[in-house]
Input
Amino acid sequence: AQSVTQLGSHVSVSEGALVLLRCNYSSSVPPYLFWYVQYPNQGLQLLLKYTTGATLVKGINGFEAEFKKSETSFHLTKPSAHMSDAAEYFCAVSGRLRSYDKVIFGPGTSLSVIP
Amino acid sequence: NAGVTQTPKFRILKIGQSMTLQCTQDMNHNYMYWYRQDPGMGLKLIYYSVGAGITDKGEVPNGYNVSRSTTEDFPLRLELAAPSQTSVYFCASSYSEGDAFFGQGTRLTVV
Output
């Protein structure tokens, strides 16, 4: 069985500062890991995903995440926050993905960017 | 290319009323999904379908029904609305092992 925890339901950063959103997972099999972003009144959009291979994954809008098996973590980072990054971010996990009926979503972290 | 389209965007229902949330996709995806999103809870899978004529329950199916008569459409039916069904509902679609594309959501309030 898989599960996801996201530390911090709300994170605030200043514009230009580092963004760090934390995600830890548990999985009985090697996981597939995802980060999704949800802008206000919009659906979810895939930011990036880890399947196999390189553990540092780059996504859209300057975001990246690193899969650390020893820490069971998949934290999302961006070097410099922009006002347009204000959104809800969801970490998700699945075990050897076959379809999204196996994907487990975390509770989400709301990111605010302060001018 | 519209992607995944959900209607309506907003709806207020009275307790006991019924309604259908519509979802259509134009990407010829075989898999479709319905989720509900509650504050602090992430997304929970209600029902999913792996192709026309095939549906299966997700994590939270009680109070809902679905059908999949065509590849494009996957409506979600609420038969007797309850306050616990107040939520934001998302439809999504994908190929069997591909990334899911989400609609913009339907915000439902049951009063």
User: Anything to note?
Assistant: Chain B touches chain A at residues 4, 31, 33, 40-45, 48, 50, 56, 58, 90, 92, 94, 96-97, 99-100, 102-105 (CB under 8 Å). Residues 32 and 93 of chain B are 4 Å apart (CA to CA). The mean pLDDT of chain B is 93. Chain B is about 0% helix and 50% strand.
